[in-house]
């Protein structure tokens, strides 16, 4: 049933994108950069923000949800009808990579996220000495994911690098799915 609804919306070229990750990963800054808003005035997100972006003929509704530990229990309220999960990782935060892996793992077993694709944004790639793509891929054990179609992209909310490419992947994935079903 869910998948039928999902497909109907994809046909309407409307998508729901859930942006999650640990606090301080750069989720809100990514959304602001995509929206061409000032990225220097970001404060921690309590609750959530929804932004709508038109991209390649698609209407992308991006849900930016607060990632602090106390807020993570509320994430489940946003799973329904999600087409794509964007998991934002702070590539400079080696200490919490394990925490990051566990949180992601916990999401990927959620039934209501089963039909969603996964885009991992390796954010803060502009910072010298940050973890590279392989380190994140291994640290998050992405190669062991069998339940979701996934893709990892290094990006920077500060420079804007690869953010458009990320949206392009999201939209292309939606097109592929429409073609498949
Ligand atoms: N150097 C660098 N800093 C970033 C980048 N993205 C976010 N930040 C900084 O990381 C901090 C947390 O960003 P925020 O968007 O609030 O993270 P959120 O908690 O995931 O929403 C802020 O101080 C941002 O300026 C990035 O790509 N590069
Ligand atoms: Mg935020």
Automatic annotation (TrEMBL):
CDD domains: Arl2 (cd04154). InterPro entries: Arl2, ARL2/3, P-loop_NTPase, Small_GTP-bd, Small_GTPase_ARF/SAR. PANTHER family: ADP-RIBOSYLATION FACTOR-LIKE PROTEIN 2-RELATED (PTHR45697). GO terms for molecular function: GTP binding; GTPase activity; metal ion binding. Its main location: membrane. SUPFAM superfamilies: P-loop containing nucleoside triphosphate hydrolases. GTP binds at residues 21-28, 67, 123-126. Belongs to the small GTPase superfamily. Arf family. This is Abnormal eversion of vulva protein 20.
